[in-house]
Design brief:
alpha+beta, four-stranded antiparallel β-sheet, 17% strand
Length: 154
């Protein structure tokens, strides 16, 4: 994992701003390092391969994006819809560049559970293992993701 722990970056760029509106920490009171460590534990405990999870995230995003707003079945009982949004958002970590703002909403039809994918969220997971804080609109809980996309038990 690339170490994102520059304290000044963490204090400013992960909080609400003109670029990220609600920020990347949500209502989570933990530090970014604690969030990353907890999610890495979940991944390890569940036997989830991070590379597989990232590949599934990218595939789900691209499949829905290519459908241009039409519902796409990810697996039986799970649909995804792409919502286009103009503009780009910078990564909270310097040097990472900017990312498309569109998002894919994935819904488990039976329960109504939803996950929201963005190119930036996928990048943060792939590069930093940062799934974002609890309460953040764009948090992708690794256990929820694998349960919804792969149908794994709770």
């Amino acid at each position: 994992m690339t170490n994102p722990t520059n304290n000044e970056v963490m204090k400013t760029n992960l909080h609400a701003s003109k670029f990220s509106a609600e920020g990347f920490l949500g209502s989570d009171n933990r530090s970014p390092e604690e969030i990353i460590a907890a999610d890495e534990r979940t991944i390890k405990e569940r036997g989830i391969e991070l590379k597989e999870l990232v590949a599934l995230l990218k595939s789900a995003y691209e499949k829905a994006r290519e459908a241009l707003g039409v519902e796409v079945e990810q697996r039986p009982g799970v649909i995804a819809v792409y919502y286009e949004s103009m503009g780009r958002i910078p990564s909270p970590f310097p040097g990472d560049g900017v990312f498309e703002k569109g998002e894919v909403v994935i819904t488990e039809t039976q329960t109504g559970r939803q996950l929201i994918l963005t190119p930036l969220a996928i990048h943060l997971i792939e590069k930093y293992h940062f799934f974002q804080g609890a309460g953040c609109r764009y948090r992708i809980d690794p256990a929820d993701w694998m349960r919804i996309i792969k149908g794994l038990p709770e």
